[in-house]
Amino acid sequence: xxxxxxxxxxxxxxxxxxxxxxxQVPSGSIVGLIGENGAGKTSTxxxxxxxxxxxxxxxxFWEDPNKDFIQVKDQIATVFDxxxxxxxxxxxxINHIMKHIYTSWDSDYYFSLLQQxxxxxxxxxxxxxxxxxxxxxxxxxxxxxxxxxxxxxxTSGLDPAVRTEILDLFLDYIQNEQNSILFSTHITxxxxxxxxxxxxxxxxxxxxxxxxxxxxxxxxIARCHHQQFTQLPKELIFAYQQKNDIYHVxxxxxxxxxxxxxxxxxxxxxxxxxxxxxIKGEILP
Length: 285
Fold this sequence. Notes:
Blueprint: E1 2-13, E2 16-26, E3 30-34, H1 41-48, E4 56-61, H2 69-72, E5 76-79, H3 91-98, H4 107-116, H5 130-142, E6 148-152, H6 160-173, E7 180-184, H7 188-194, E8 197-202, E9 205-211, H8 212-218, E10 220-224, H9 226-230, E11 237-243, E12 246-251, H10 254-260, E13 265-268, H11 271-280, E14 282-283
Parallel strand pairs: 3-7, 3-8, 5-6, 6-7
Antiparallel strand pairs: 1-2, 1-4, 8-9, 10-12, 10-13, 11-12, 11-14
Helix pairs in contact: 5-6
C-alpha cells in the first residue's frame, strides 16, 4: 500500500510551475526528496497539505480516492524548519494546547520523548537552541501518533550529533510498518543513511524516483575524455557534465558498463554528485 500516490500534479505559480509530478510514498518507508533550491520540493509538499491548491492531477492518501486531505489530516504530521509557537511558551504549555487540538494526542508519549531528548518541559522556548527547537518540533509532530510524517528540511543547520539523534528517531518511527516519511532535505548524507527511496526534482519536474539501495549500487560516475565519452551508449547515461576536458557521467547500469568498458574509471555514486551533474550538466531523455 502507498501512504501517498501523486499522479500528474500541476500548479502554475508566477514564473514557476509544478509540471506533471507523479510519485509514491510506500507505507513503511522513508522517501527522500532531493533537488536544488527552487526545484519545487516545498511547493509539492504544500500541495500535498492543501496549503496550495492544485491546478490539476490527483493526490490519493492510503489508496482511497474518496478521502481528501481534510479527512485524513489528523493522520498526518508536518515538520517544517521553524517551530511555529510563541517563544514565551514552554514545552509543558504546548502539551496543554495540543491535547485540545488532536483527539489522539498522547501526553505520556510526548513527555517521554521530551525526557529521551533531554528537553526541559518548563523551560521557555526562547531559551532553546536551534537543535532543541527542532527536536521539540519533531516530538510535537509525533505525539498524536500520525501514520505519515512530512518533513521539510528538519535537520538543516543542526550539528552532526543532533542530526544523528533525529535520524534514529525517524528509524524508530517506521519500525511500525504502517508509518511512512516524506523527507525533503539538502543534507543528502542523511538520506544515504536512512532513506528507502530517492525522489529527485528539478525545475518543477520529477527526474527520478528510485530505490535508494538500487541507486547507490547500480548507478555510478564515469570519468572520461571526449573520445571515450562519444563511445558510450546513450541508454547507459542518465546525465553528464563536462569540466574542462573531462566528462563526468552518471551511469545507470554499472554492471553492463564495467563489462563493456573495463578500462574506464568508474566511481561510486553520491547523491550530491547526482544532483550537481544533473543540474549543471545535461540530462538525457
